[in-house]
Amino acid sequence: MPAIVIPCRLDVADLDRNPIDRATEVKNESVSTAPTQHILPNGIKIIAEQIPVDAVNLSVWVDVGSAVESNEINGMAHFLEHMVFKGSDRLGLGEFERAIESHGGNTNAATSQDYTHFYINVAPKDFAKLAPLQLDIVLKASIPDEEFQRERHVVLEEIRRSDDNPDRRIYRHISELVYENLPYRRAVLGPVDVIENVTSEQMRSFHRQWYAPQNMTIAVVGNLPVSEMIGVIADYFEGQAIADKPTPRTYKPELPFDAIVRREVVDSSLKQARLSMTWRVPGLVELEETYPLSILANILGSGRTSRMVQDLRENRRIVDHISVSNSAMRWQGTFQVFAKLNVEDVAIVEQAIREHILQLHETLVTDEELAKIRVQVSNRFIFGNESPKERAGIYGYYDRIVGSLEPALNYPDLIKSITKEDIQAAVRKYLNPDAYGILIVKP
């Protein structure tokens, strides 16, 4: 989840960004206690946990992102995220933000290819008053025509700022290279010509289709009794009609590259070249397949003592920066090596990366490398999930996008169960040193 983000008035288009900068994601964290899971009669899932932190986070995870859009409405999920904050049937323009801020709370949202996420952080004493407001604007967004036209200009400016950002341009080149058919090749924000022409009625239809209670998970974590937090949410839905659950979209992952697919572009705004080598690997629908690759990404390119950083940057000095990530979305993942370097060193660095991958085909990683990653995971386990926001984010993400909390609750043990042989088997299966997508961006 949890990086380069697009700054909006109240949101970040969370996954329309450069994947090379997110080696550690929320989905790679874990929690030590099992929260309470409760399903209301209307089918909405509530995950609740009391922790001794004097705040409450309410997170609403909607199973809709840019991946469900057609090309004709690409960008609708993100645009709708903006419009949710414009009010509901009972909340006028600005009333929601004023209510949250007047009580010292804060609110934000994010849109990705696979989900849309809204949250508030409030004091426990204010939760019963403010939580229904959050639910109201999400489920009953009014999408007024006049505000729709005003916000369209905000979103269009956001797209133009994104187009002016070299990192985002590189990310889009990578996406278009790696994904031939999956909707992940498209920008979450959508193109200018689409956003200029979508209508408010199209958005209201999109909202009715996807913002159904059964298509959401509500996670609430903070210093209140679990029964009280669930009760506040249940009271909000009392007596409300049950909407039809939308038919989910499903996609098949794309086959691995069977050759080296090379693309070069020129970006005169850069002072250094960029190199990205990417392999198609499993997504979250094959979650267990991602664990060895996530460990390997850390061994190769996370921190100064990792293999490629030591070799290519510290010792040989043929890159200024190098990182490795295994980034899994729902239907597809990417294993990626990214470098900033001088243009005359591109061929040398590409060959060096291939040699590292080939070595992994032939030789197991070391006990020391594996032990270091396990320590890192344990440290994240201890320090990375202390706030209500972090925990609620993990619960909502895993339940709604992965489909189960179990992997989040057991992540350290799952990582500890991965062997050197598992890592080598994953390398041999997914990382062919003679077949990958490579993007070279020259200044």
Question: Could you describe the 3D structure shown?
Answer:
By secondary structure, this protein is α+β, with helices and mostly antiparallel strands. It folds into two domains: 11-237, Cytochrome Bc1 Complex, Chain A, domain 1; 260-442, Cytochrome Bc1 Complex, Chain A, domain 1, CATH 3.30.830.10. It is 41% helix and 18% strand. The chain is built from 16 helices and twelve strands. It has helices at residues 76-84, 95-102, 127-139, 145-163, 166-178, 192-195, 200-210, 226-237, 287-301, 307-315, 346-362, 367-383, 388-402, 406-409, 411-416, 420-430; strands spanning 11-12, 36-39, 45-50, 56-62, 106-111, 116-122, 216-222, 260-266, 273-281, 321-328, 333-341, 436-442. Strands 1-5-6-4-7-3-2 form a seven-stranded mixed sheet, sandwiched between helices. It has a five-stranded mixed sheet with strand order 8-12-9-11-10, with helices on both faces. The longest helix has 19 residues, at 145-163. The relative contact order is 0.18. Mean pLDDT is 91; it is low at 1-30.
Largest sheet composition? 7 strands, mixed
Helix content range: 40-55%
Secondary structure class reads alpha+beta
Cα end-to-end separation: 31 Å
- Count structural domains: 2
The top level CATH class name of the largest domain: Alpha Beta
Number of distinct helices: 16
CATH homologous superfamily caption of the largest domain: Metalloenzyme, LuxS/M16 peptidase-like
Physical arrangement of strands within the biggest beta sheet: 1-5-6-4-7-3-2
Radius of gyration: 22 Å
Q: How many strands? A: 12
- Mean pLDDT rating: 91
Ranges where pLDDT stays below 50 over 5 or more residues in a row are 1-30
What's the architecture of the largest domain in CATH terms?
A: 2-Layer Sandwich
**H-E order:** EEEEHHEEHHHHHEHEEHHEEHHHHHHE
Shape: globular
The portion of residues forming beta strands comes to: 15-25%
CATH fold annotation of the largest domain: Cytochrome Bc1 Complex, Chain A, domain 1
